[in-house]
From TrEMBL:
InterPro entries: NMN_transpt_PnuC. Signal peptide: none annotated. This is Nicotinamide riboside transporter PnuC. Pfam families: NMN_transporter. It is found in: Cell membrane. The keyword Transport applies. Required for nicotinamide riboside transport across the inner membrane. It comes from Sphingomonas trueperi. GO terms for cellular component: plasma membrane. The chain crosses the membrane at residues 24-44, 50-67, 88-106, 160-177. PANTHER family: NICOTINAMIDE RIBOSIDE TRANSPORTER PNUC. NCBIfam families: NMN_trans_PnuC.
Amino acid sequence: MSPIEAVATLLGLANVALVVRRSLWNYPFALAMVTLYAWIFLQARLYSDALLQGFYFIVNGYGWWNWRQAKAEAGEVPVVRLSNRARLGCAAGAALVALGWGALMSRLTDAAFPWWDGTIAVLSIVAQILQSRRAWECWPLWIVVDLLAIPLFLVKGLWLTAVLYCLFLALSVWGAIDWTKARA
């Protein structure tokens, strides 16, 4: 546990709590958090997670813009649902990309747990895109990501990050419930 991990943990808690509440203020916290976590994951040789932070930085910029536009039009950040076809496409695409990314990380790097870490990274990308688009389906996917990430971070000795992901898990359940109500 390092002071940087502690700060990143606090930023992450604030970020996700604000996402659940559909607050635009989640984005400054997200940008600071992912910057710190990029460094943390590089140090732990979790390269997929480190690269994921760069992706998060870019998609959080897009999400900030998208949420601001939606709020300006609707007076709040509206929640949308994917069609069954879109859900199936996301699932199939994520599975194929996770297989490819895991294979790539396994062959080309000294990554710790390349398949596990790679799967978490790919599912996180899909969840982050869905979240940026205000899709309710991001929450069940975040729950899966959290359930996969917690034991990985424990194995790597990232205790605060594992605790953070336990809290993310609870917040993801809250988000799924709250966003369901927002759609009603």
